[in-house]
Amino acid sequence: MTEKKEQLIQNVQVTKTDDELRLLPFAVAGLICFTIAVVLGTGSWFIFGSRNRPKSETTFETNFSPIITEKPETPVKTEENPVLPVASASNTPAEPVEKNLPENVVEVTGSEIAIGGGTTKKPLERVIVKDFSIAETEVTNSQYSEFIKETNHPAPPGWKDSQFPSGTENYPVTNVSWQDAVTFCKWLEKKIGLPVRLPTEAEWELAARGSEANKYPWGNEWNKNAAGSKETNGKVSPVKSFPLNRSPFGAFDMAGNVWEWTQDKVGKNEVVTDTEVKKALEKGQVLHIVKGGAAQTPAAQISAQARYEIPENTKVPSVGFRYVVERKQNP
Questions:
Q1: Would you state the pLDDT for residue 69?
Q2: What's the chain's average pLDDT?
Q3: Which of 305, 295, 145 has its CA nearest to residue 227?
C-alpha cells in the first residue's frame, strides 16, 4: 500500500515537471517579444514623435527661455526703447503724443459740442472739434515772466521792473490784453516747435465741460467749495487752489478765478451782452469772447458756458488766459 502511494506521488511530480518544461519556450518567447516591442516603440517615438511636438509646447519654451537666460548687460535707455501707449478697449492704438508738448498740458479728445443757447444770448450752435491739447491751468505770473525776460515784452500793469508782486508766482497772470496773450502764444510756439494759439470758444467749452457737456467742470450743480464767487468774497487764487474745480480732461479753474481770452471774435451782427459792449462794437472796436467767469462774479453767472464780450485791448485784473497746442490729426 505504501509502495503504490509513493509510486503515485512520483508519477504526479513527473507529470508536473513535463508540463512546466512544455510552457517554458512560450514564456521565453513572450518575454522576447515584449522586450522587442518596448524597444521599437520607444525608438520610434524618439525618432519621429519628437519632431511633431505640439506648437503650444514650442511657444512656451520660446517665450520663457529668454527671460531666464538672457539678461541685458547695461540698463536699457528710454530713448531707444520708448514705452508704447496702451491700446484702448476697442483695440485701437492710442494716438502718439508729440514729444515737444509742454508738461503742463492735458489732452482733449475731439467731438461734437453744442455751444450757446440758454442764458448766453448766443444762438445754439453745434461745432465739431478736433483733438487738441490745452494748458492745465491759466498761464501764471511765473510763466509770463519768462516770456517777458526773453522778449522784452512790456510787463502787465502792477508789475515793478518787469517783476510780478512777491508771492504771486503761481497766480494767473492778469491785466493782459488779447494781443498780449497772442504774442505769448507765438513766443511759446517758437520755443517748442508746435502750433500754439488761444483756444476757440468751442475748444474751451469742450475742455471745461467734457464729453458729457456738464454745466461746471465738476458736474451740473454749483458747489461753493469748488470755486470762489462774489457771495463768498471770492478773490483771485493761485492756480489749482480748488481741487474740485477740475474738468473731465484734467484742466483746472475753468469756472471762476479769472475770465479767459479765446480766439473768437464778435461779429457785427451778433447779439452782445449789454449796451456798453454794443456801443464799443458800433464804434468799430474789435471784441473777443472771454469765458468762465471770475472770482468776483456772482455764482449764478459762473459756469463753463459763461461768456462775455470785451474789446481786445482790455487789461483788467479779472481777465487772464490759457493756450492750446494743436495736435497732429489722423489722415
A1: 28
A2: 78
A3: 295
Q: What is the CATH number of domain 105-326?
A: 3.90.1580.10
pTM above 0.85, yes or no: no
Q: For residues 154-163, give the mean pLDDT.
A: 95
Strands 287-291 and 307-311: antiparallel
Helices (H), the chain: 2-47, 55-69, 141-151, 178-192, 201-209, 275-282
DSSP class of residue 226 equals T
pLDDT the model gives residue 22: 56
Distances (CA, A) of 208 to 50, 85, 102, 294, 303: 64, 25, 19, 15, 9
For 189-207, what is the HEC assignment?
Answer: HHHHCCCEECCCHHHHHHH
Decide if 221 contacts 252 (C-beta within 8 A): no
User: Residue 128 to residues 106, 110, 218: CA-CA distances in angstroms?
Assistant: 19, 7, 23
Cell (9 digits) for 15 = 507529470
**DSSP state for residue 6 in the 8-state scheme:** H
Model pLDDT, residue 91: 34
pLDDT in tens, 230-282: 999 999 999 999 999 999 999 999 999 999 999 999 987 777 767 888 888 88
The label of the residue with cell 493761485 reads: 238
Distance from C-alpha of 232 to C-alpha of 39, rounded to nearest angstrom: 95
